[in-house]
Design brief:
Layout: E1 12-20, E2 23-34, H1 38-46, H2 48-54, E3 58-60, E4 67-70, E5 75-82, E6 86-90, E7 100-108, E8 114-122, H3 126-132, H4 135-152, H5 160-166, H6 168-187, H7 192-206
Antiparallel strand pairs: 1-2, 2-8, 3-4, 4-5, 5-6, 6-7, 7-8
Helix pairs in contact: 3-7, 4-6, 5-6, 6-7
């Protein structure tokens, strides 16, 4: 997995908020361009066989109004689908009642390149947002964007889960991701104190030191 860490620099990140029925939702958004046609990127994001290679195995009725479940991950309803440009789904872990949605937007940039945007909007409890900030979700989305890049480039080179657990390169990737989301948090108006605390806590969770625990449950 060469040049993995440099993939961090290919992503634009934005932190914001918007009003939803359940209150004020925090938003994290990432944008990057892939060297692949839009139909291929759409297929990689929606075909169950390909999703199982770079994200997680998925089951369910993958049509608007249907429900899906990622093995060991999120589940929800398929809310809106406009192939090959737009996919919006509910994004819930366990029985969490808070509002959470993920939207993927694709736009062709010529015949062989695609602009990819992913945004999560979620009502986040203070006990999660205050210590972690946007890195609570953003680091995982950076890992997701990396997995998609590997899939579009010919397939993941080995076990991504094992790479994340065992590789010094993965530790550097997640550390830099946490710092990048801290910079986006600062750009959104987060105070220097809040940003520093969020980067420290997020990095400690994703990249624990050998003498540290696994982080908050």
């Amino acid at each position: 997995m060469k040049e993995i860490v440099s993939q961090i620099d290919l992503v634009e990140r934005h932190v914001g908020s918007r009003t939803v029925a359940d209150g004020e939702a925090r938003t994290v958004r990432l944008r990057r361009t892939y060297d692949a046609p839009v139909d291929d990127v759409w297929h990689a994001c929606t075909d169950p066989a390909r999703l199982s290679r770079w994200l997680m195995p998925v089951s369910g009725d993958l049509e608007p109004g249907g429900t899906y479940r990622l093995e060991g991950g999120a589940s929800g309803e398929v809310l809106h689908c406009e192939p090959p440009r737009l996919l919006r789904v509910g994004w819930t872990f366990g029985d969490a009642p808070e509002f959470s949605e993920v939207e993927v937007r694709l736009a062709p940039e010529g015949e062989e390149r695609t602009l990819f945007e992913l945004e999560q909007a979620a009502v986040v409890p203070p006990e999660v947002w205050d210590p972690f900030g946007p890195g609570a979700f953003g680091v995982q989305w950076d890992l997701t964007a990396l997995g998609l890049a590997l899939e579009l480039g010919g397939g993941p080179a080995g076990d991504l889960a094992a790479w994340r657990q065992e590789s010094d390169e993965a530790r550097e990737f997640m550390t830099r991701s946490s710092e990048a989301w801290g910079a986006a948090y600062a750009a959104s108006g987060g105070s220097a104190e809040a940003v520093a605390a969020a980067v420290r806590t997020t990095t400690g969770f994703y990249v624990p030191q050998p003498d540290e625990g696994a982080g908050p449950s």
